Amino acid sequence: MAATLPISFFSTLTISILLSSILYQATSEVDDFLVELNQSKLVKEKLSHFRVYLHDIVSGRVPTAVQVVKSPTRPNIFGMISMMDDPLTLGPKLSSKLVGRAQGLYASASQEEFGLLMAMNFVLMEGKYNGSTITVVGRNAPFNKVREMPVIGGSGLFRFARGYIQARTHTLDLKTGDATVEYNVYVMHY
Q1: Which of 27, 72, 102, 175 has a 20 to 30 Å separation from 52 between CA atoms?
Q2: Which candidate, 183, 187, 186, places its Cα nearest to that of 168?
Q3: Could you tell me where this protein is found in the cell (predicted)?
Q4: Rounded to whole angstroms, what are the CA distances from 93 to 12, 96, 132, 151?
């Protein structure tokens, strides 16, 4: 006498096959969103260097940087946050040619010394770089002679950018807090 399989076995088998098919299709759709590109079509990477002067103006009727969060731990200013839209010029004078703006924020991130967390975009407005940006995020200890911060990306002609900047204080008015800082930017890009 031949043994017969119960109907529930066939139902379970059918449901398993259907579920497997659905899961396979869903998984293949997820894998299809990522496509590896042929890197041989990428242009050669280049290193660019440029120097600009950032004018951080916190005094007067039209400041370019404003404090948005006051420090709860005065007098060391730990916790203070300021937003900035500082002019970038070719020379150290504010009246020299405007080539972009430094837009972002800086926050007092050290309890021991005056150390800032900088997160900013250099938004360029001149020549072939018009509309391109360079993104910088890093630590800035303003009383050190030279400060180095990483370039972590960019847009436009600086897409996939990487590199570093070196900042040097050109002038600092201790009475008003206004400063002019020389930025040397070294950036790898395509």
Answers
A1: 175
A2: 183
A3: Secreted, Extracellular space, Apoplast
A4: 80, 5, 24, 25
Low-confidence ranges of the chain (pLDDT < 50): none
What is the identity of the amino acid at 34? L
At 11 the pLDDT is 73
Contact, 161 vs 187, CB < 8 A? yes
Q: What does the pLDDT read at residue 10?
A: 67
The type of residue at 120 is M
Cα-based torsion angle of the residue sequence 99, 103, 108, 114 in order, rounded to the nearest 10 degrees: 0
pLDDT score recorded for residue 175: 96
Burial of 42 (0-12, 13-18, 19+ CB in 10 A): exposed
pLDDT score at 1? 53
Q: Residue 128 contacts by C-beta under 8 Å, 6 or more apart in sequence?
A: 157
